[in-house]
Structures are given as C-alpha cells and as structure tokens.
Amino acid sequence: MAAMVAAPTAETTAITMGRAKKKAINKQPLVVLHRITIPSTSLPTPDNSIRVEEASNAEIRGNLVPPEPPSQDVIDFMETETVSVDGDASDEASIASGPVSFPVKRKREKRGRPLTTHEYVGLAEAKRKFLRLEMEELEVRTVQELMDSGASLKKTRAIMALPSVEELAAGMAEMTPDELRKKIASVMMRVEHVASNSSNLVGPFKNDLRIAARNVNAAALELVKRSAATGKDSWWMRENARLRGRGLPLKKAWKQ
C-alpha cells in the first residue's frame, strides 16, 4: 500500500474542488488523495455498485482511459478530511466526497378540462329542458289535486284564524231574504275580482273561482225566489214569533 500526503506548508499546492491553485488565502481546507492498489485475488468479484462507483469517479476526474486489465482492480476514492492550515481548530472545514446529484425536472401535466366527445354535445341544454318539463308536470299534478272535490284542505295557521260558519250565520239571522241575496252577490263579486287580478294564481285556479262564485249567486237567487213564492220562509216565522214575544207583556199590561 502506497500513500502520498501533502504537508500544509506555505509552498504546498492545495487541491480544492478538483482545481490546482497556489495558496493565496489562508484557512483553506486541504484534500488528501489516497491511492490504494488491491490485488484482484484477495477480493471477490466486484458487483454492479463498485462498477457504478468507478464510473462516477471517472466522470469526476475526467478520466477517459479504460480500466486496467482484470488482473487487479484499482479503486480510487477521494477521502474527506479536515485540515487546519494555521493550526486553529475553529477554522477547520470539510469537503464532501462522491458524485453530486441534481434534481431531475419532470414534465408537468397541463391543467384544464379533458377532451370531450360527441356524447357531451348539447348535454347542458338537454338537462335544462328536462328540469323545465319536470317542473311543469309537478305543477299540473298539484293543480289537479287541489281541484279535486274530495281533497281535504290543509289546516294551516291562517285557515285556523278564519271565523267559523256558525259565527257568520249568527250575524245574518236578522237579514231578510233580499238582504241575504245582496250579501251573497257582494261576496262573490269580491271573489271574482281576486281571481281576475291576482298574479299568484294560475289559470285553472282563476277559472275554478269564477265558476264557484257564479254558482253561489245562482243558488242564492233561486232560494230567494222559492221563499218569496211559497211564503214559508223560516225567517218570517222566527220574526213573527219574536214580535209576539215582545207584544205579550204589553197585551197583559193593557188588560190590567
């Protein structure tokens, strides 16, 4: 085994990063190279890792000479050592050995939407058309359910706050048949006005309200005609009984 060591004197040539420079600045690290010759008989067959290391060392040295014959393997390596030039331990430095690895830049994928085929042409328009038809079908079904005579009304808070039919009938007990007919006509006129001017009602609702109002008017008129013709209206009977009740005390007082 043979070793060459360069002493750190003023005339020593320093080898830094593979370049030979004369020592001009103090406190520079010195790299010591060792060359070791090992016979091939004392070592096993070199594997791929040793060959890769030899190739990398050859690239660093710039050696283009092919390796020596297989009689012996020459392993050159650069050993890292810290050498103090001026003897000051605080100014020691080290240089790492081995090949330098650089990050490999990969091709970045382009962003954006994938390529579309013919099956996606007009898909958005078809979805909008389908949703519109579905909404129209739901609206027609709702109108049919509401116009069904057997459908029960939902008891909401607003409906619960309305006056009952009995309370309204008690307020109309003193009216004559003609006054009742006028009352019904005014209410039905109000219903037709709402059905004609409301923008929240669809066409079937408006038509249904108009027909209902006219049917009520026709029924009220027919009742008034029948009561006037027969003379058996219950209102006259109740009014007669009420007046008789009021006249009985006067009749008794007059007799006394």
TrEMBL record:
Organism name: Lasius platythorax
Name the UniProt record assigns to this protein: Uncharacterized protein
Highest classification ranks of the organism: Eukaryota, Metazoa, Ecdysozoa, Arthropoda, Hexapoda
